[in-house]
Amino acid sequence: MVRQRIQIKRIDNVAARQVTFSKRRRGLMKKAQELSTLCDAEIGLIVFSSTGKLFDYSSSRMTQVIQRHMLHADNFHHIDQSSLQIEAEDAMCALLNKELKDKTQQLSHLNGDELEAMSLEELIRLERQVERGQSKIHRAKGEKLRKELATLKGKDVELSKENQRLKEKLAQIVKDDTDTPTSTNDQNSYFQDNLPSDTFLRLGLVTLLPIYLHIASLSVFTSVSFYCT
């Protein structure tokens, strides 16, 4: 069955016109993208709907394509340099404003605002985009948590080693302190037995210790001399 050719004329029905515009626009954008990819062509496509909505496609930045078109050598005999510059700047300004508006609208959609005007297809795409973003966030958060956990484990090992070193050092100090008082107590007992109690208590061990050691050494020396004699 031969497909009937559609007569090219304005579609009177508004709904049918919008459906046809949407289908033809997507086809036009697809053909432009294919032409750019297959033939390495630089393409800039701008489409305004009957309601004034702007749609565009460019193989590179649209401003770059427009500037290249405006500055093309074939156009210099039609437009002077000042007008060319003004038109290029106006076109760039319009595209930047549109880009800013689109990004602002996308941000609002991601925040869950201004969703009433979106179609079902657009809502599905937005939902998938949000799910992909959440998945990336979860992966990044998990990686951060794993790194922090590994760092904490390393610190715990170091603290355990340091704690063990301190315990060993403390045990050695206690052992040394336990060994030292034995000889000191013996010396104190010796001095208390050989000194008058009132003198020992009055002057104290610390003051008499050097003097008594000197006296003791003299006594030993005298005793040795006596036996030798």
From TrEMBL:
Keywords: Coiled coil, DNA-binding, Membrane, Nucleus, Transcription, Transcription regulation, Transmembrane, Transmembrane helix
Keyword Coiled coil appears in the UniProt entry: yes
Annotated GO MF terms: DNA-binding transcription factor activity; protein dimerization activity; RNA polymerase II transcription regulatory region sequence-specific DNA binding
InterPro entries cross-referenced by the UniProt entry: MADS-box/MEF2_TF, MEF2-like_N, TF_Kbox, TF_MADSbox, TF_MADSbox_sf
Transmembrane stretches, start-end: 203-227
GO process annotations (BP): positive regulation of transcription by RNA polymerase II
Listed GO CC annotations: nucleus
UniProt xrefs under Pfam families: K-box, SRF-TF
Coiled coil stretches, renumbered: 123-169
Residue ranges of every copy of the K-box domain listed in the record: 86-176
The keyword Nucleus is assigned to this record: yes
Subcellular localization(s) per the UniProt record: Nucleus
Domain MADS-box intervals: 1-61
PANTHER family: SERUM RESPONSE FACTOR HOMOLOG
Protein name: Uncharacterized protein
Species, as recorded: Saponaria officinalis (Common soapwort)
